[in-house]
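Hi V.,

You were right to ask for the full record rather than a summary. Here it is.
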Amino acid sequence: MEQQERVRGGGRGPEGGRDDAEAGYERWKGKGVALRAFFYIAGTHLFAGFIWLLFTLGEHAQK
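Predicted structure:
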């Protein structure tokens, strides 16, 4: 009987899926880090592009 319950439960521990919850949380944290890194990198490139545009416009300005 106990073995049948383990098979139905997916082999989880006695906590009732705590390992699955922790794995989901780690996946969620990983996605958050990746998303934050993407926005930081994209934002830095946009800022650098804006500075480059200012230098280009300043170079072509009539003096």
